[in-house]
Amino acid sequence: MRTRTAKWFETKIKYEKPAEDGLMKTTKETYVVDALSFTEAEKSVMEEMSSWIRGIFEITDIKQASYKEIFFSEDARDDRWYKAKLQFITIDEKTEKEKRQNVYYLVQAANLFKAVKNIDEVMGKTMIDYSIASVAETAVMDVFEHVANLGSKAEENDVPEYEQAPAE
Questions:
Q1: Residues 13/31, Cβ–Cβ less than 8 Å
Q2: Neighbours of 91 (CB within 10 A)
Q3: d(CA 105, CA 86)
Q4: Sorting pLDDT into bands at 50, 70 and 90, what band is 164?
Q5: Which residues contact 69 (CB under 8 A, 6 or more apart)?
């Protein structure tokens, strides 16, 4: 299992695709994208989907996801996404009462049982006391991670192009 913490956005797109009977059918799908802003999320999902969708598609909704971390599976059979609500358990030193903090994750798995197993695999490596409050399958079709483009010299030096000294 691999985990990734980022600012995630859930984007919904609408487009037409051929149905089994050959007629065009309007489809709505949800994709998750790693981005710094709504604008960047829209641009990223448009770039990703333009290579898969023939014709016109429309982004109908973008919202910031309630989770900050995603658990990615290396198993090709894990083709579904589950939203997990975990409760982190701490003890208040002053009142000596148990306190629970809700934290959300997106987990890749083939089924509900495997999602719980994947959560336990990742969380078992931590020192955090937790309980799984809920796990539910989502409508997420895929997750697109941001990949830094190191093609230009400015990015390799971590200096924006407009701040570089002119070449002599």
A1: yes
A2: 10
A3: 8
A4: very low
A5: 3, 4, 5, 105, 106
One DSSP character per residue, 61-99 reads EEEE-S-SEEEE---TT--EEEEEEEEEEEE-TTT--EE
Interval 94-103: pLDDT, tens: 888 999 999 9
Phi and psi at 38, nearest 5°, equal -60, -40
3-state secondary structure of 29: strand
CA 164 to chain centre: 34
Backbone phi and psi for residue 100, each to the nearest 5 degrees, phi listed first: -120, 130
Cβ atoms of 78 and 108 within 8 Å: the answer is yes
The alpha carbon torsion through 145, 146, 147, 149 (nearest 10 deg) reads 160
Order of strands, sheet of 2-5, starting from the edge strand that comes earlier in the sequence? 2-5, 69-72, 98-109, 80-91, 130-137
Tens of pLDDT, residue by residue over 62-89, are 999 999 999 999 999 999 999 999 999 9
Tokens of 54: 């023939």
Tell me the pLDDT tens digit for each residue of 18-31.
Answer: 888 888 899 999 99
